[in-house]
Amino acid sequence: MDHDPAAVRSAALDLIIYADLTAKEGSFCGQIAFDTKPLSDRQERWLRILLDRHNLAPLNHSSRSTGARA
Question: Could you report the per-residue pLDDT of 22-39, keeping only the tens digit for each?
């Protein structure tokens, strides 16, 4: 599924700012934060897993203004 590049960037930045990421996770988030190509299914799945694992808003609702889920 194609997502708005701004929503993907916002989700990746939320992870970079608010989550304690491994080097691999941080590299992935940095890549997708600045790459305008649509996510592959595999990339989207991993992004959703990371957002959930670190208790951040899901991709469809990710916003830097909201940060972590309540």
Answer: 999 999 999 999 998 899
d(CA 41, CA 22): 21
Question: What does the block give as tokens for 53?
Answer: 């694992």
Find where tokens 């930045």 sit. 13
- Look-up of token digits 């190509």: 37
CA–CA dist 69, 34 (Å, integer): 24
Measured distance CA(55)–CA(38) in Å, rounded: 24
Q: Give residue 8's identity as a one-letter amino acid code.
A: V
The amino acid that residue 53 corresponds to is R
Could you give the count of Cα atoms lying within 13 Å of 45 in the half-sphere of its Cβ?
A: 3
Query: What's the pTM value of the predicted model, to 2 decimals?
Result: 0.79
